[in-house]
Amino acid sequence: MSETPPALEVTDLHVSFPSEAGPVRAVRGVSFSVRPGEVLGIVGESGSGKSVSSLAVLGLLPETADIKGSVKLHGRELLELDDRDMTEIRGKDIAMVFQDPLSALTPVYSVGDQIVEALRIHQDLDKAQARKRAVELLDLVGIPDPARRAGAFPHEFSGGMRQRAMIAMAIANDPEVIIADEPTTALDVTIQAQILDVLKKAQEVTGAAIVMITHDLGVVAGFADRVQVMYAGRPVETGTVDDVYYRPRMPYTIGLLGSIPRLDDGGRHALTPIDGNPPSLVDLPAGCPFAARCPIATDLCRRVEPELTVREGGNHPTACHRSHELVAGGSLDPATIYPVPPLPKAPADSVPREDRTPVLEVDGLVKHFPLLYGAVVKRKVGEVRAVDGISFDIREGETLGLVGESGCGKTTTLLEILDLPSGQSGTVTVFGKDIRGLKGAERKALRRDLQVVFQDPMAALDPRMPVGDILGEPLKTHGWSRDRIAARVPELLGQVGLDPDHVDRFPAEFSGGQRQRISIARALALEPKLVVLDEPVSALDVSIQAGVLNLLDELKARMNLSYLFVAHDLSVVRHIADRIAVMYLGRIVELGSAEAVFGAPSHPYTQALLSAVPLPDPRKERERRRILLTGDLPSPADVPTGCRFRNRCPKFASLDESDRGRCREEDPAPTGLAGDHTAACHFAAAVTVV
Amino acid sequence: MGRYLLRRLINHVALVLIAASLTYFLAAISLNPRANFAGRNPPVAASSVTATLNDYNLNPDTPVVVRFAHWANGVAHGDLGRTVTGGEVNDEFARRVGVSTRLLLIATILGSIGGVLVGAWGAIRQYRTSDRVTTLASFFVLAMPVFVIAVTFKLWAIDINDAVGHKVIEYTGEYDPGLTGTGEILLSRLQHLLLPSLTLIVIQVALYSRYQRSTMLDVLGSDFLRTARAKGLSRRAALMKHGLRTAVLPVVPLLVYNVVLLFTGATFTEKIYGWHGMGEWLVNSISTNDVNAVAAVGMFTAFVVLIAGLLSDVLYAALDPRVRVR
Ligand code: SF4
Ligand code: SF4
Fold first, then answer.
1. Which residues contact A76 (CB under 8 A, 6 or more apart)?
2. By CB distance 3.0 to 4.6 Å, which of A280, A360, A424, B100 could disulfide with B278?
């Protein structure tokens, strides 16, 4: 392996941008190299400099950027080339796949034309030849009916298909290096699995080196050969995936690995969050940039920034003064440097589920939207079956995780519960009362007991209000006196782990994680019984997310709360939920305790969903066999007859004809398995996938 | 698409008819053609005035509904009625549409293209001196009344002519009627066209470039432009092929409406440079109580708005696949 010279070699790359506050030092000494056929994962949280480095390699940074160092492609220095010469390299020798495939394709040209363009920039092909090649490429990346689809425009493609088209474009000129910048971040997990598969295939076809940039340690574990972890513009640890995942020797890597919720570690326990926030890149403190958050920082750390070198007793480079101590059997055990917060026991945990009172009961809820057509006179041409008859309940002190991919109806469900239902049929009962008929005072009481936390804390908090007023607002609405509010607000801040003295600050002065804590504090102000959490951590970096998840768990135990936790990330749900409901196309296809659903998933969709979630564990990932779903989620306006999952169901394909007939004609109702575990499949059978 | 356009056309024709009728009523009620005959020397006999007015269907004493019916009947048969001086509105109309077209054709094409290019260029060079200068200049132009611009140009032309010693730049009328040879007439027309075109172009470039600059700025930071460059297009090629094409879209309707409405909106330019086009006619016909002419201009304006609507729809659909109806 070490014989082949690297295809791309980056040495001591520095990038800074001018800003009003002074130069932003986005990248400070990045070095890496990739050989042909190798995959390097560059992992880091937002602001770590990972994307900036990749754009610097391609010469796509704005002209104001100050770039130093060296980028060599097969020994040829790229940073010295002018833009004209770089155009010969971009798209030919180095290709790039970007994150959001909707905005990354030009909306006014057909997908085929955009691939043709990529081909004809670098190859001497006539229009017909290029067209033919473009169709072949689309076929290669798995676009069905490629000859026809080549004429489609980006908005007519689904997210997954667009990303496939992006990959087709990237491999069009048989590149030496493919840089993929968060290629699956905007996609659902089953689509992510498909795209990773396509990327693998693209690599096999081209033999290219891949640099995969991501924030997700799970995605690269099974995909990359080597990883480089970045923090505050620098690599802090780099090595083979096995070295970094199993023998991390730098506290940030250790913390990151400890803070990711995992699907495979037996469920409910507290995560190890990394306290604090990444430093500002404008005026970095002296010493190790991680020192402020590091549990084992010393004086030396605060004075001298550690170099990235192979340290004593290790075999891969780390940037930490204490790496030599961080070995199993050394003076510092990597497993224990971060204090693991205890998982508080909720009072409800000791009471069997049947004996606890239900706080929310949803029974047969249906919400269809008319599909309208026409500019002036709208006529109904169909129906979007957003929620199509779902039932579940949440009992006191319990967290129900409602999971599913985009378009499955989880948001509509949540809105129906929050906005008092307008649904066509079914009932929603909160604290024993049917909320449809509620009026006046009863409704106000319900509003107090049922609170909500949204995904984006910045959008949910009024930026012109100080935190004290934000938290006081719900109290004021419910007639609290000024004195009581003044006493309650600091108490709330303390409860969510913020400084009670910060009542006068504005939302913009807090970090993302802190803002989400403020949203939580506001939801808790009136001591509700049920809190609806809509993707509460999906906008946060993992190291921050862990702290918020722990907080939610702790509050639940302390205040005997119940949660309806809506999320797309199954690993997160695994960590917080007692019970799981899996939605697909307006229905709950599987429902049961977290142990049952994750341990013995019985609906083919749940199985595929779970198997698509990457684990931050290279060895397991290498051995796992994914259940890949074909195609995209059908539109809820066009629900298949019989079982709505059948056109993608891997099990359906393996059934004999008579059984298939049943799937085709009969809409499966939830059938009971062990305990209160149900699955809506005629042929439900447990499979272990994690 | 064809059917959709047809439906819109029918809807719009109805609107044009309503607008034209309302214009007629408004003009017929508020304008008094009889006043044109007052104070004439020698005085005209009242009976003969009435006879003339009746003849032209302009007599304010005839109930407006009756006059309208008469007018509408004429219009339905392609006759727009008579002017206060007895001429056929049809003839005047045709002549003036011709004048306006000759005046506007080149100016609007150059103005639109120039506006788009200046705007896009400003966006690409945001905050550089060239961008600041064009921004400042266009706001200066937009803040200035049209007649000030036109008169200023006229004065400059006079200075230039004086300096050269003979009239290189003309500033009154369409051409010199005293000339004969085709070449000479053509040259004379160009000499006459220069200043009014310049006036219109400057104003249009200033206006359109502002819109174009801001839509282009939105596009500059877009991911697809980055993708285009990552494919291997040079910055320039990416900007022209992917950036400008997308950034022009939102400006298209505005451009089309502005251009088409200039047909009756170039009043000052026409008046100052002595071009007898539609814009001038609107003002003149109101001041001479010329009811039928006002109605004709009104109808024309409504019709032109209809065309603008259709044109911008068709153009937009041609440029943006996302709105195409399949
Ligand atoms: S150098 Fe010091 S502060 Fe930095 S990670 Fe190592 S121990 Fe922590
Ligand atoms: S009912 Fe049939 S098609 Fe549906 S999930 Fe079960 S096996 Fe698949």
1. none
2. B100
